[in-house]
Specification:
This protein is an alpha/beta fold. Helices cover 20% and strands 25% of the residues. Helix 2 packs parallel to helix 3. It is elongated, with a radius of gyration of 29 Å.
């Protein structure tokens, strides 16, 4: 190779190096680093660094690299046609589903470890779809439908990361399954629990300017980051009752349903509700314990009997749910630990109007099985 050819190659390499140096200086002068650059559309180099020009797109122009939380994947629902062998049209049925705490840990190998108990949830759906002899009028989700630990104020775990979308998708599907079993005519109620409220509180505390943002030009829509929108509740005709802890739903004139804000470790939460509100009956969640307490008081005209009861939970009871008593090992996996929790659902038979009678059954679920009204139910996903 001739001396002239070597000189031309060296000159070209020096020019390229000089150009890159000019680009680097220009980025730094504008407070940018090469990591901020997504795509460079045009570069005009000059011997004078002040005349060097770059047309570029920032790295964030096409959205974040991580997947933001968005609406659940839509589910096609085909509600069953319910033709129960009606005994009396005066009586109606409500099924109460407590605290599934839907959520996951996601380990390094991609394995998902749920907080909710798929087998218990399957049994609950079978009870919803059962012919109760009277029309099914209500399916009541008692709150803590989602766990949302990544938005909580307690100690965080690395395996909570990137699981919110998975929980939202599974929550939507569980509601769609409820609609399929309940049919079109039954109301599906979703009461806000303290865990469901975590997302709303997180936005207020960390991104208040984004609170309440809606899709453009749809003023009547739900806020984008609300559970109503993310879970697609309107598509499934699910009624969301927010305002925890005051949120409540009256099944009839005597019986109210609520998530609850009491949890007595000695197991007497039902007694607290009965004693504090002896003139009404209360169906509650939150404690994850199956409880029942009756109370009778009287006024001048009559005796007044009330009952407070909880159907337990539909989450796992083996230490998987993040709690103050649960623990994880060095790999971030939960240790087996059995708290004083029980799984179940409540089936309420009630009347409306002046005759505000009601009766209820507590359906215990254990290891994906139950016995109810002489029939054994076994989870189909076991």
């Amino acid at each position: 190779m001739s001396l002239e050819e070597n000189y031309n190659i060296a000159k070209a390499e020096n020019s390229a190096t000089s150009g890159l140096s000019s680009i680097d200086k220009l980025l730094k002068a504008n407070g940018l680093s090469p990591e901020d650059v997504g795509k460079i559309s045009k570069v005009s180099l000059s011997n004078n660094p002040d005349d060097t020009k770059i047309i570029l797109s920032p790295k964030w122009s096409e959205g974040p690299e991580w997947q933001p939380v968005q609406q659940a994947e839509p589910t096609i629902v085909q509600p069953k046609v319910r033709t129960p062998s009606l005994i009396s049209s005066d009586w109606k049925v409500a099924v109460a589903l407590p605290d599934p705490q839907i959520g996951y840990r996601k380990y390094e190998d991609g394995t998902l470890d749920p907080f909710h108990d798929e087998a218990a949830m399957d049994i609950a759906l079978q009870i919803v779809g059962l012919d109760h002899g009277h029309p099914l009028a209500q399916v009541i989700n008692l709150g803590d439908f989602l766990d949302l630990p990544m938005y909580g104020t307690y100690e965080q775990e690395q395996n909570f990361a990137h699981t919110a979308q998975l929980a939202i998708n599974r929550g939507h599907r569980f509601l769609a399954e409820q609609r399929a079993e309940a049919g079109d005519n039954a109301r599906i109620i979703l009461l806000e629990g303290n865990h469901d409220k975590r997302l709303n509180r997180f936005i207020i505390n960390n991104a208040a300017a984004a609170y309440g943002l809606k899709v453009a030009n749809i003023p009547d829509s739900w806020p984008v980051m609300s559970l109503q929108n993310l879970l697609r509740l309107d598509e499934l005709k699910v009624e969301f009752i927010d305002g925890y802890p005051a949120a409540s739903h009256w099944i009839n004139k005597r019986l109210r349903a609520m998530h609850g804000d009491r949890a007595n470790s000695s197991g007497s939460t039902a007694a607290q509700y009965a004693n504090s509100n002896p003139n009404i009956s209360t169906l509650f969640g939150h404690t994850h314990r199956m409880e029942q307490q009756s109370k009778t008081v009287f006024d001048r005209d009559q005796a007044i009997k009330s009952v407070s009861f909880s159907p337990g939970c539909l989450c796992r009871v083996d230490g998987a749910v993040p709690s103050v008593k649960a623990g994880i090992d060095g790999k971030g996996k939960p240790l087996e630990y059995f708290e004083n929790w029980q799984q179940g659902v409540s089936v309420i038979f009630y009347k409306d109007g002046d005759d505000d009678s009601f009766h209820f059954d507590q359906v215990h679920i254990h290891k994906g099985k139950t016995m109810y009204r002489g029939q054994e139910f076994i989870a189909s996903n076991m």
